[in-house]
Amino acid sequence: MKDLKSQASKNTTPGKGGLTPEIQSRIGHQLRAMYDDVVRQGVPDRFAELIKKLDAPGATPQVENDGGTNDNNGRD
In the chain, what are the domain boundaries? Predict the structure, then answer.
């Protein structure tokens, strides 16, 4: 167990989060690939419609009442 810790400490960069440049690069590439996939999916229709309504002249945000209780216990 001690050998694993000493080996791990040799492969890290002190003061920089403990990750080697190779690991940081690999994480960066994987994150970019994931984000690119999300961007390619586009905006769902229901969100596009909501944005269109909010951008319309005179649009005001409306709060829907779900019939639930609030957490202020009668204090306003």
Answer: 17-58
| Ranges of residues in the chain whose predicted pLDDT is under 50 | none
Number of Cβ within 10 Å of residue 44's Cβ equals 9
Question: Of how many residues is the chain composed?
Answer: 76
Tokens of residue 56, six digits: 């319309």
Q: Which has the closest alpha carbon to 11: 22, 26, 27, 25?
A: 22
What pLDDT score was predicted for residue 11? 58
> pTM for this structure?
0.39
Rounded CA separation 27/25 (Å): 5
Vertex 21 angle, CA 19 and 24, to 5°:
65
With b for 16 or more beta-carbon neighbours within 10 A and e for fewer, the 48-66 pattern comes to eeeeeeeeeeeeeeeeeee
Q: Which tokens in the block code for residue 55?
A: 């951008």
